[in-house]
Amino acid sequence: GPKVLQIPSHQIIDMGQMVTLNCDPVSNHLYFYWYKQILGQQMEFLVNFYNGKVMEKSKLFKDQFSVERPDGSYFTLKIQPTALEDSAVYFCASSFWGGSAETLYFGSGTRLTVL
Amino acid sequence: QQQVRQSPQSLTVWEGETAILNCSYEDSTFNYFPWYQQFPGEGPALLISISSVSDKKEDGRFTIFFNKREKKLSLHITDSQPGDSATYFCAASANSGTYQRFGTGTKLQVVP
Description:
The complex is a heterodimer of chains A (115) and B (112). In chain A, the strands form two sheets. In chain A, strands 2, 4, 5, 6, 9, 10 and 11 form a seven-stranded mixed beta sheet that branches. In chain A, strands 1-3-8-7 form a four-stranded antiparallel beta sheet, with no helix packed on it. Chain A has a single domain (5-98), classed as Immunoglobulin-like (Sandwich), CATH 2.60.40. Chain A starts with a strand and ends with a strand. Chain A has no helices and eleven strands. Chain A has strands at 5-7, 10-13, 19-24, 31-37, 43-50, 53-57, 65-68, 75-79, 88-95, 105-106, 110-114. Chain A has 115 residues and is mainly beta. Chain B is mainly β. Chain B has a single domain (4-111), classed as Sandwich (Immunoglobulin-like). Helices cover 0% and strands 58% of the residues of chain B. Chain B is built from no helices and eleven strands. In chain B, the strands form two sheets. In chain B, strands 2, 4, 5, 9, 10 and 11 form a six-stranded mixed beta sheet that branches. Chains A and B meet through strand 5 of A and strand 5, strand 9 and strand 10 of B.
């Protein structure tokens, strides 16, 4: 099936540093999402993105977070500066159509550890 | 505020038994309910979904039962197999929304 690639799979950084998580979505998909998962359980929506713009973001999407997809390349999540509570697994997802009834295709996640 | 809840948090069944995973929601505007299956080290993958116009959806060994009045769903996995061992997420969304809200997840273990 369609594949979403996330790079890197693991990232360890010191608190206060900047980190960029990269996502290579399914090639013809137009809508992109970031979710945050803690302790292998709760999947929390962070943000979605279409046509170069954020469509909607949750309260978890703090001011230190930003997303972009320059020139159709990677869809990135940047955290600057990082905090201890940002430690989690971040999942990127994409879909062809927008709207809430679309099938989301998820990557394997990036495990972020903030020390 | 947790808008989508799942129970139990974890479930162990014997191979061949039927596993029943429960989900409930609060927002009456939710009308689409996908279930995702997640294996360790992987992202969630769509397993089966139902819209609010139906009360049952079946796909092989997997069946969703939906009770709109009580705002409850359940996923039944018949003839459970060890390969079904995974975490299952119920999600919900509304026509007016732009994203799916995930539940708290149920970790299923199927013992041979």
